[in-house]
Every structure is written in C-alpha cells, then in structure tokens.
C-alpha cells in the first residue's frame, strides 16, 4: 500500500504538489471513485488509479538481493520451485537478473527494472561475477594458467577468469561472461569437478553474508546507484 500522491508522482504524473492539486481538483479516481485525499492509501497491485479517466500505471522499480538457496530455479514464474516464490513482497513483474544453476547458491538480484537487467547482462558490458568455488581434484599450476588465459572446451570458448586460491580445494573465480555452466565447464576442462558453487559478487554488489540461503533484502540506495553507475 502506498499514499495516492506518492503513487501518482512515482508514476510520472507530476510533482508531489502538482498531483496534490490534481487530486483536490477532482482529476483523480481510484477504482472509479473521485479521490478526495492525497494521503489515502492505494494498493499498487490491485487498485485502479486514473487521471482524467486515463489509467495510471505504477512503475516504481524495486531491487532485492536474494541469497539463492540450492534447489531453486532462476527463471520467471512457471518453473518450480522458483526463486520468485521466495520473494513475499507484492510487486508485479519481478524477474531474476541472470541465472544461477539449480544447485548454485548465492547472490541473485531480483528486480522489475528491465533496463538495468539489460545493462548488467549485456555481454558487451563485461560485468564481473565472482564465485566461491570448491572442486574435488585440486587444480595444477597449468590448469590455473589455462583459466587465466581463457579456455576452449567442447566447441565453446571461455574468456580469461581471475583466480584466487583459498585452499587446494577452494578458490574464487571472477568471470565477465554469463555463459551456461561457465564455471563448471571451465573446471571440467581442467579434469576436475565443481562440488559447491556460490556467487558472492556481481559488479560491485557484494552478497550480504548476514542473509541465510533463501533470505533477501532490499538493496540500499547506495547499492542501486553503484549498480547503475557505468
Ligand atoms: N557458472 C556455473 O557453472 N553455474 C552457475 O550457476 C553460475 C556460473
């Protein structure tokens, strides 16, 4: 629920004072009834708001950071169990910005901002994604060099990734593509296998480690501004 004047202002009808005047002057209806008070509450998902009998669509963008648990599919609704089922907030048109495999955990941005999603997912933008990765067989120095210089594997090429050792079986890998099974395929090309994968960063958005798998929170203003910065 949101104040009517905020709804109208966010939807681009006018400034807060302009929309207040428009309400006073009887231009605005909620569910067919002339609205009398700027501070009345409307349900942005259920109520119909009109200005001079034209529908006004609420278009506020929302941004959630989800710590995706294993076992959930990153897709729009229709695939079960779905990451969107984890978001209890009543916003329309949410979608996951990018995909994590069903068995991958970690940072997943959920939003309804198609423009930002496009920017973050465009291969040309080379947005960094960092993964905490565990493997069954330790990588050799030659494997690490291949990872750092780029890999060809089963007809697909993978751009150089940044490798940071944590232990013989654990590392972080930073990639700038978003290819299907990218990390798993690169590790497979080295004769090893990913046993655990968790995204910990996308661009400058770092997974909030206080979020348990399945938990989410709104992004802060600063995080949104950083994501949008070129
Ligand atoms: N690379 C993978 O192999 N899987 C993911 O979920 C993300 C990157």
Q: How would you characterize the overall build of this protein?
A:
With 230 residues, the chain is α+β, with helices and mostly antiparallel strands. The protein has 3 domains: 2-55, Structural Genomics Hypothetical 15.5 Kd Protein In mrcA-pckA Intergenic Region, Chain A; 63-122 and 205-228, Pseudouridine synthase I, catalytic domain, N-terminal subdomain (Alpha-Beta Plaits, 2-Layer Sandwich), CATH 3.30.70; 128-202, Alpha-Beta Plaits. The chain has 6 helices and 17 strands. It has helices spanning 4-10, 16-24, 114-121, 141-149, 182-189, 221-228, and strands at 2-3, 28-30, 33-34, 41-42, 49-51, 54-55, 63-68, 95-96, 105-111, 129-135, 151-153, 156-158, 162-167, 170-175, 194-202, 205-206, 216-218. Strands 7, 8, 9, 10, 13, 14, 15, 16 and 17 form a 9-stranded mixed β-sheet that branches. It has a 4-stranded antiparallel β-sheet with strand order 3-2-5-6, with no helix packed on it. Helix 1 (4-10) crosses helix 2 (16-24). The longest helix has 9 residues, at 16-24. It is elongated, with a radius of gyration of 22 Å. The chain starts with a strand and ends with a helix. The relative contact order is 0.15. The model has no long low-confidence stretch (mean pLDDT 92). Uracil is lined by residues 100-101, 104, 181-184, 197.
């Amino acid at each position: 629920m949101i104040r009517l004047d905020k709804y109208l202002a966010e939807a681009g009808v006018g400034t807060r004072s302009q929309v207040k005047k428009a309400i006073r002057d009887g231009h605005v209806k909620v569910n067919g009834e002339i609205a009398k008070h700027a501070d009345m509450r409307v349900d942005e998902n259920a109520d119909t708001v009109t200005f001079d009998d034209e529908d006004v669509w609420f278009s506020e963008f929302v941004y959630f950071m989800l710590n995706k648990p294993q076992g959930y599919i990153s897709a729009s609704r229709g695939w079960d169990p779905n990451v969107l089922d984890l978001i209890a907030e009543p916003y329309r048109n949410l979608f996951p910005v990018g995909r994590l495999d069903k068995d991958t955990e970690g940072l997943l941005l959920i939003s309804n901002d198609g423009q930002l999603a496009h920017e973050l997912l465009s291969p040309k933008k080379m947005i960094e994604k960092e993964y905490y990765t565990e493997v069954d067989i330790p990588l050799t120095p030659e494997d690490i060099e291949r990872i750092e210089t780029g890999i060809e594997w089963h007809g697909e090429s993978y751009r150089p990734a940044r490798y940071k050792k944590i232990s013989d079986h654990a590392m972080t890998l930073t990639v700038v593509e978003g290819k299907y099974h990218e990390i798993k395929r690169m590790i497979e090309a080295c004769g090893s296998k990913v046993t655990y994968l968790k995204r910990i960063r996308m661009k400058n958005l770092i997974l909030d480690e206080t979020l348990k798998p399945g938990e989410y929170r709104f992004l802060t203003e600063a995080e949104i501004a950083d994501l949008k910065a070129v």
